[in-house]
Structure formats: C-alpha cells, structure tokens
Amino acid sequence: MKNEFVLAFNEVLEEKQLPRDVIIHALESAMVSAYRRAVNASNAQQVEAKIDMDTGKVTIYAEKEVVEAVQDDRTEVTLSEAQRFDAAAELGGMVIVESTPRDFGRVAAQTARQVIQQRIRDAERQAQLAHYEKQLGEIISGVIQAVNAVGLTVGLEMRAEGTMPRKEMIAGERFRVHDRVRALVAEVKDSPRGPQIILSRTHRNFLRRLLENEVPEIYHGIVEIRSIAREPGERAKVAVSATQPGIDPVGACVGIRGVRIQAIVRELHDEKIDVIEWNQDQAQYIAKSLSPARVLGVYLNDKSTGGKTATVVVPEDQLSLAIGRDGQNARLAAKLTGWRIDIKSLPEAAADTLNRLQSDEAYAAIAETEGEVMDLISVMLAKKAENRPLNPEEYERMTQFIDRVERRASRRLPEKKVEDPRVAEIRAMVDPKQATLSLLDSSLPEHVAYTLQEAGLTTLSELVVQIKLNPDDVLKLQGIGPRAMAEINRLVDGSILTPVVEESAVEEPAVEEAAPVVEAAAEAVEAVEAVEVVEGVAEEAAAVEEETAPAAEAVAVEVAPVAETAPVTEESEEEASFDELFTLKTDVFQAVEPEEEEEEGGEAGKKKKEKKKKGRKFVEIVYDPDADLTVARKKHKRGDGDFEWE
After folding, report:
1. What is the CA radius of gyration of the chain?
2. What single DSSP character describes residue 413?
3. Containing H/E element for 643?
4. Residue ranges with strand state E in 473-614
5. Predicted confidence (pLDDT) per residue in 93-145, tens digit
6. Is pLDDT of 76 > 90?
C-alpha cells in the first residue's frame, strides 16, 4: 500500500500538471533550505538532499572537513565517520557525509513549505507561459470569472487567467459571470505576477480562425482566404479563391442554405459577412468588393501621387448602396482591395469626363474624335440639371462615352521614370523569406497596415524601400504618428539582412578645392576664441614655449598667402558647418608637419608632435608668479593681416 508521501506527491502532479522531476527538484531545494535554517549553516557549504520516492524518507548530505577532534559538528567530522562514506578520506580533506537532523523543527518545516510553494508556483507560471505562447493566434475558450469596467477576466486551462479589454470586445455584447466565451489569443507577455494573456474578439484573425474551423475546404487548403476587412459587430468582407479547378470558393464558405456562414454570424453577435471571390483582374475584384451594389465600370490609376486610386462608376440609384451607411461599404472595400476607391454616379462621372476633355490639353486628341458625342452628352447633362428624365438609351450612351474616354486615356504611354539605382540594392538586402509578406499579416497594428496598404505599400519589400529612400512620405500619411513610425522602423530593421551603406554626399576633389578657404575660416574661428587659463608648472611652460616659436613661424608662412587670396567673410563661416571645419582643419595641419617629426618614433616622437600641434595654435605661455598660474595667450589676426599678442 502506498504511503501518504507518495499519495500526496501524485496528487500534486495531477493538480499542477507539472513534470515529475520539477516537483522532485522543488522538494529537494526545500529540504536544503530547511536544513540551512535549522542548523544555521553557511551558504558556502555544499548541501544536498535526496528523497526516496518509495518511502518518502529525506536524507541530507553536507560537505565537512576531516579532523581528529570535532569542535563544530556542522562543518567538521572525524576520520572514522568520514571513511564510512568515502574510503579515501584523509585528515584535512573535505568529504560529503550524511547530516540529516533528527528534527527539523517548526521554523525549518515552515521554510520548507514556503520554498516548495514558491518553486511549484514558478514552475507552474513557466509552464503556462510556454503553453500559451504556442497558442498565440489561435482560438481558445474559457469561463468568465469577473466583469468590470476595464474588461473581462477569463479562466483558462492550466489554472491560467486571461484578460479581454473593452476595446477587444465586440460592441453590444453582454457577458455574465460563468458564461463560456471563445476568443483569439492576441498577445502573451511575461510579468512578475505570471503570464499576461490578452484575448480578442475584434481581431480580423478571429474571423479567419472561425472560417477555418467551420469550413473544411479552408482548413485543408482547397480554398484560400486572400484578404479580410472587418468592422467588428457590424460588417465584414472576406475575399476567397480556390486552389483547385472546379471548386466554388464562395459556395464552400457559405454552405448549404448558409449553415456554415450563419454559425459564424451568430458567434460574432450577428455581424454581417460578405464573401466574395478574389480575382486577379483588379478592376473586377474592386467591382465585386462593392457588392451588393451594381457597378458600371472601374477605371484604375496606379500612377497617382496619392497612391493607387480606382474610380468606380455606378448608377444613380446604386450610389447610396455602394457607399453604404456612413461610408462603411466603400471603406471595407478599400481595406479589402488595398485601393483608394472614388465612387461616382453616372451623371457625375460623365460631367467630370466632359470637363477634362474640354479643359485638359492631354485629352485634346481624344476630344477631336469625340466632338459630336460631347455635344450630345452636354445636352443630356443639361436635361438632368433641369430634373428632366433620361431614357435608358441615353444612359447607355453616357456609359459608353465614359468607358471609351477612360480606356483611351489609360492606353496612352506613360512617361518613363528613371528608377533609383538604390531600389534594387535595398530589395536585395531584404530577407527573401519576408520580402513578399503582406503588411496585413505582419506585426504592425491593423490601422497602420491598412493605412500603408491604401498608400500603395502592400508588401514588406515595398515598405523597406520607401522607408530607406524617403521615410517622410510615410510619416505624412494620415494616421501615422511617432508610435506608428517606431513600429514600422522596428519591422523594417528586423527584415534587413545587412545594413544599407549610405553613399557619400561629398567627393574628395571638392574637399581639396575647399581646403584653403576652410583653413582660413578655421584661423578666423581661432581668432575669436577666449583666452584659456591652464594650471601647470613653470618648467613645462618653458618647454612648450620653446617648441611653439618655430611651429608658429612655419604655420604663419602657410596662412599668409591664404589670407590675401581667399579672405574669409562672415558668409563663408555660416556656410561651412562646424564639424566640417574641424575635420578639414586637422587634415591641413597634419599635411604641413616637418619631415623630422615623421622620422622620430616612440614616446618622445609622440610627445614632440603633440607639443608642436599645440604650438600651431599661436599660443604663448607666460608664468604669472603672483597668481601662481601659467597664462596661455593666443595670437589674434587683425584686419590688416598682422598678428598681435594679447
């Protein structure tokens, strides 16, 4: 029959769902801590604990010194006792012997209990963190434990707790304590109080996972979800395509009599879901994305400065349906397709086209061929302005007129743009595994990814090129602020294999030509420097003064012609930056060093060079016995080209 220890041990294993060796290690650590507390042992002493899992007996082993006479049984042991555990033990050596106390005592037992609880709690938190990190992006279910103004507290498996903030809840949903709820694991973070699990029911991937669970064709890869645009609790659009011929992707998602899609609608609090078929032809894709509205024509313009723009023409009675309530239908279609959509009614589009033909020189050739039709369209628009009805033939003629003009305008050869040579270089540095990654599937927040998509940046490679070439264009986008730019830069930096080498903006010949002027400007900057006061010894000052005189004469000879040929004005000082002046000044002085200094080596040569560099600053060292200071006086250049000491 099993003893109480084994029963309790198995109960802990079942309750905590932890590995067996983790619990054993926690027990052994607790016994070691209890022994140290009971006998007041030093932390430097090696102590081990062994537990017999059959009987539950605990044995303590401690490291002790072998001596002839024991004075402190906590750290010393006799030779005969040591040889019981180690036959090779000798006097003065260290051996590990059994030191199990007869009674740990109340304090030691309490210490063991606390250590066991803490170790098990830590192991339980680590197991929870590892488990839910694997569940990231998946749907889990839990029981609501608390409802407050901040959000929900949900009890999960492995005795873990998840939180669902209000912003991650679908508007209009009401939950009660003990209700079961399904949600997506949006984020898992480690904290001192255990793993922090953030749940979400508004994330677009929550709808993706529901579709995978309800539609076997999506789960097995026969039907692929191309894009999802969602406004939680109100409406969502899903673009799907079939990977095998003969498969109807929309029918597979909807199911017979809509049973599949209705199950998802009920889970999402009656959120309307439009399932459309993805099409490689972007015009047809955009037309379908505006369903249930009927579209007469879609005209694409990917050369627009504001990003990819699609002009959609719809009948007058379909305009409000295409736009949707508060623009919801058009907004979701733009998120779904990645195009900026401009919806116009048929008369409005005809008026815009007619205006372009009459005023824009680029449409002059088209206007010549459409002269008679333009007159008819003008008459039709006049009748429409007078609220007179138009017959179907006139609407059809208006539609054909818009279609002809837009198609002929789109066939015009666009101006060839010279591609920046750095674009190919930057694209080559992007990780090939992430280059084609859609921004909607990246780690960027949803609103940031949608904003970039509407601006024409759909893949990670395109974003990296834009950030490296002109990041200001991204920052100018509406909805992109400092925090969003920080997330974008973090994503871009993580996708680049090697750093991009910036090209030098200044060429060497230009530096050499500017050297005389910069040298004179540097001397002018020195002329206005304040007098430095340096503490020192008189002997060192005399040595510096001896080295200064010849160097000052040599540099004065170099500077004199520059002052005559290239006088420095205030404008030249403003144009040259301080860093450039400092760098070029150092190069000029190194160029006029005497050859004798280059031949000298060792510490003496270095000291001599340093002293002569100081001398070129036109410094005269004078010792003031009254103040016991060494005063450095600099030579100032005057307007007549002479130098005076101050």
Report:
1. 41
2. P
3. strand 643-645
4. 533-534
5. 888 888 888 776 666 667 777 777 887 888 888 888 999 999 999 999 999 99
6. no
The predicted pLDDT at position 545 comes to 45
Q: Pick the closest to residue 318 from 338, 339, 348 (CA basis).
A: 348
How many CB atoms are located within 10 Å of the residue 565 CB?
A: 10
Non-local (6+) Cβ contacts of 429 within 8 A are 496, 497, 498, 499, 500
* HEC-encoded secondary structure of 340-393: EEEEEEHHHHHHHHHHHHHHCHHHHHHHHHCHHHHHHHHHHHHHHHCCCCCCHH
Nearest of 49, 26, 24 to residue 101 by alpha carbon:
49
For 555-581, the pLDDT digits (tens) are 333 433 433 434 444 444 444 454 554
Domains of the chain: 4-125 (3.30.1480.10), 135-202 (2.40.50.140), 421-495 (no CATH), 514-645 (no CATH)
Q: Residue 102: helix, strand or coil by DSSP? A: coil
> 10 Å Cβ neighbour count for 54?
10
Distance CA(367)–CA(351), nearest Å, equals: 14
Instruction: Read off the DSSP letter of residue 457.
Output: -
Q: Distance between the two ends of the chain, CA-based, in angstroms?
A: 105
The model's pTM is: 0.60
* CB burial string 72-92: b at 16+ within 10 A, e below: eeebbbbeebbbeeeeebeee
At which residue do the structure tokens 């040579």 appear? 421
CB atoms within 10 A of CB 612: 21
Tokens of 409: 């305008």
Residues in the chain: 646
260 pLDDT higher than 70: yes
551 touches 612 (CB < 8 A): yes
Give the C-alpha separation, 141 to 199, whole Å.
10
H/E stretch holding 83 reads: helix 79-85
CB 146, CB 163: distance < 8 Å: no
Per-residue pLDDT at 224 exceeds 90: yes
Q: pLDDT at position 506, please? A: 40
Query: Can you tell me the distance from the alpha carbon of 583 to that of 519, in angstroms, rounded to the nearest whole number?
Result: 10
Question: Does 629 or 467 have the greater pLDDT score?
Answer: 467
Tokens 């480690």 correspond to 190
Lowest-confidence region among 510-514, 600-604, 619-623: 510-514
What angle do the packed helices 508-527 and 538-565 form, to 10 degrees? 120
Beta strand 161-165 pairing with 151-155 = antiparallel
Position 472: which residue type? D
Looking at the predicted structure, is the pLDDT value of residue 514 above 90? no
Share of the chain above pLDDT 90, in %: 32
| pLDDT tens-digit readout, 300-327 | 987 766 678 899 999 999 999 999 999 9
